[in-house]
Automatic annotation (TrEMBL):
<dbReference type="GO" id="GO:0003723">
    <property type="term" value="F:RNA binding"/>
</dbReference>
<dbReference type="GO" id="GO:0042274">
    <property type="term" value="P:ribosomal small subunit biogenesis"/>
</dbReference>
<keyword id="KW-0539">Nucleus</keyword>
<feature type="region of interest" description="Disordered">
    <location>
        <begin position="73"/>
        <end position="96"/>
    </location>
</feature>
<dbReference type="InterPro" id="IPR050781">
    <property type="entry name" value="CWC22_splicing_factor"/>
</dbReference>
<comment type="similarity">
    <text>Belongs to the CWC22 family.</text>
</comment>
<dbReference type="InterPro" id="IPR016024">
    <property type="entry name" value="ARM-type_fold"/>
</dbReference>
<feature type="domain" description="MI">
    <location>
        <begin position="437"/>
        <end position="558"/>
    </location>
</feature>
<feature type="compositionally biased region" description="Polar residues">
    <location>
        <begin position="113"/>
        <end position="129"/>
    </location>
</feature>
<dbReference type="GO" id="GO:0005730">
    <property type="term" value="C:nucleolus"/>
</dbReference>
<dbReference type="InterPro" id="IPR003891">
    <property type="entry name" value="Initiation_fac_eIF4g_MI"/>
</dbReference>
<protein>
    <recommendedName>
        <fullName>MI domain-containing protein</fullName>
    </recommendedName>
</protein>
<feature type="region of interest" description="Disordered">
    <location>
        <begin position="113"/>
        <end position="149"/>
    </location>
</feature>
Length: 634
């Protein structure tokens, strides 16, 4: 009886085990089917990475493989001997207010930096010599050597992957670096790497000619256009062209081979072909003009020599007509009658630019219109053309022409006796209603400091700190003057909100001062519609780019339906829509802490954007309001 009972128990356990195994198999099948439908844990197919063609032909393809071998060998060396337990190492990183590592935070990175510099001494020394000297980093945002070196390695690795197949990702990643790191540092490192690559790689690589120059130029043009679309326009093309011109003009001091000059010339011509550089500087550089010939060498060279003579001798409206006519002739010579593969591929890359930039188009606003005189003649113009005058081809640099004496005066104490203003600045200050001497001197520094928004903000802060007592009141006046200038200028100039953003990056105390200045703008009822609209656009740029909280509009009077009041808030949302959708939605969700403010904002959006003529803007804003309401409900 007992034996029979044990036998039945074993049979039951065997059947039960079989049922459980079948259930497990069925569950695994169901889970795999659901994962396949939902796209969860989808493993990408492992493909063998193919290096770009120019790297394989030049013999540089071992670089990426060498980095992988170093990583694998470092993993082998890090393994511990038998018998020791594994312990997790937690790196203690000391970060500053902006989340960046300080100088005393990473000793290991310094060690790796010294070893890498010992292995490649020539490359690091050349990159240090080629870096532009006029870059100004705002106070309060220190960048250590280790972080610069890691950023340089990141930029170098992405540039080494440039090819037509990987262009979209390379452009997206390099553009992303400008928002995650200080833009001046990323810009200088990117220019160094591009110049180094142009100097080291020949034009002809086997059967291909000028492929690397075309790939680099279209990549830089796409980054320039994407930064402009994201309201982070940093004059990348201007600084890059200036660096190349300096290398060409100083070739007597440091000899440059003809291959390097040809590479620079072909790169500049490609920038002109992709629409980010005008033909003015192309006509000035005769060495570049040689590379524009495609069908008839002598005809095109004679054409450029004639163009150079006319452009240097004649002034007036006929000069503009000549430029337009010559541009058309050169385009016909280089495109329609060409049998070279380089030009055919350039036309193909120009068509592909829009897909790589995800719909962003290259407009006339980002076409840099400068000549050699604007770059070389720094004693009279400084670098004022980088601020925005050169970006607009229809404007001329006649408003303010800062001299070297004025730029030197801007760095002195503003209470120093004998401080005289230029007559143009004096007249502009009188027109703006700046009565006191201190405000006029701050306005002079704002208008005449060369080097861009970061340098202007640093000069203004230095002037306020050297003014002695009452520094905080002087800082408030400084911000009020910048806000007053951005409201008074027509058309709207993005230079002024970038100066305000540099103040925010310098120290967080300016955040409240900028908030108070915009609250004062909301209270004023005697401002024009254009002034209120300019203030709204500036506030939208500060919210989108420089992380100013959108709750600054909590003092907005929704009951006031005047044109100026409506234009202010409307332009805030228009500038917000220039960024990514999720980023704009996150900014709008900051208003959810104020129930009444959030409700009034949604009502304002539906009321004033439901009849918008721009369908893209209308759908974007109304979708923001709908998603904002649904997120608050849930």
């Amino acid at each position: 009886m007992k034996h029979k009972k044990n036998k039945s128990l074993k049979t039951y356990e065997a059947n039960r085990r079989q049922i459980l195994l079948e259930d497990n198999e069925n569950e695994d099948k169901v889970i795999k089917r659901l994962e396949k439908r939902l796209g969860i844990n989808r493993r990408p197919k492992i493909k063998k990475a193919v290096h770009p063609l120019w790297m394989r032909q030049c013999g540089f393809d071992y670089l990426l493989d060498f980095e992988k071998e170093v990583e694998n060998s470092s993993k082998v060396h890090e393994t511990k001997p038998l018998g020791q337990t594994r312990t997790k190492r937690h790196k203690s990183k000391q970060v500053n207010l902006y989340g960046q590592q300080t100088a005393a935070s990473c000793d290991e990175e310094k060690c790796t930096e010294t070893t890498s510099s010992n292995q490649h001494p020539t490359k690091t020394s050349s990159s240090c010599l080629d870096s532009p000297p006029d870059i100004v980093v705002p106070e309060g945002r220190p960048m250590t050597d280790s972080s610069n070196e890691s950023l340089r390695k990141t930029i170098r690795s992405w540039i080494n992957r440039i090819s037509e197949a990987h262009m979209a990702r390379v452009v997206a990643e390099l553009t992303k670096l400008f928002s995650e790191n200080p833009r001046a540092t990323v810009r200088s490192l990117l220019i160094d790497e591009v110049c180094t690559l142009l100097e080291s790689v020949p034009i002809s690589t086997g059967s291909k000619e000028g492929w690397l120059q075309l790939d680099l130029s279209v990549c830089v043009a796409c980054i320039h256009a994407c930064l402009h679309a994201r309201l982070q326009h940093d004059n990348l093309i201007a600084y890059l062209v200036e660096s190349l011109v300096d290398k060409i003009s100083l070739r007597k001091q440091s000899p440059v081979s003809t291959n390097v000059l040809s590479s620079f010339g072909l790169f500049l011509c490609s920038l002109f072909h992709f629409g980010v550089l005008s033909s003015k500087i192309v006509f000035d550089l005769l060495a570049v003009g040689v590379h524009l010939r495609k069908a008839d060498f002598s005809a095109c060279q004679n054409l450029i020599q004639i163009a150079t003579k006319h452009l240097t001798s004649s002034t007036g409206p006929e000069q503009v007509d000549l430029i337009c006519e010559l541009e058309g002739v050169i385009r016909r010579l280089s495109e329609k009658h060409s049998k070279e593969e380089c030009v055919t591929r350039a036309l193909h890359l120009k068509k592909m630019m829009r897909s790589w930039m995800k719909g962003v188009s290259v407009s006339q606003e980002i076409c840099l219109s400068v000549g050699l005189s604007d770059i070389r003649d720094r004693e009279t113009r400084g670098r004022w053309w980088l601020v925005g005058s050169a970006g607009n081809p229809f404007s001329t640099i006649t408003a303010v022409v800062p001299t070297q004496h004025t730029a030197a005066q801007a760095l002195h104490s503003i209470n120093e006796p004998g401080y005289h203003l230029a007559p143009e600045i004096e007249a502009a200050a009188e027109n703006l209603g700046l009565r006191t001497t201190f405000r006029r001197q701050l306005f002079s520094i704002l208008m005449s400091t060369p080097g861009g928004p970061d340098a202007t903000a640093s000069a203004l802060l230095k002037a306020c700190s050297s003014s002695g007592s009452g520094g905080s009141s002087h800082e408030r006046e400084m911000i009020q003057i910048v806000v007053h200038c951005l409201m008074a200028e027509d058309p709207f100039n993005r230079f002024y909100p970038r100066v305000l953003g540099s103040f925010i990056n310098a120290h967080r105390r300016f955040l409240m001062m900028i908030k108070c200045s915009f609250w004062d703008v909301l209270k004023k009822a005697d401002l024009s519609v254009n002034a209120k609209a300019n203030a709204g656009r500036a506030l939208g740029i500060l919210v989108l780019v420089f992380n100013l909280p959108l709750t600054v509009i909590k003092n907005f009077d929704f009951g006031d339906t005047s044109d100026g009041n409506v234009a202010f808030l409307r332009h805030v949302f228009v500038e917000l829509c220039a960024g990514e959708y999720q980023h704009a939605l996150a900014k709008l969700m900051q208003l959810s802490t104020y129930t009444l403010l959030s409700r009034n904002t949604r009502i304002f959006i539906r009321k004033h954007f439901s009849s918008e003529t721009d369908e893209k803007l209308k759908s974007f804003v109304l979708r923001l309001a709908e998603d904002m309401r649904e997120s608050e409900i849930h």
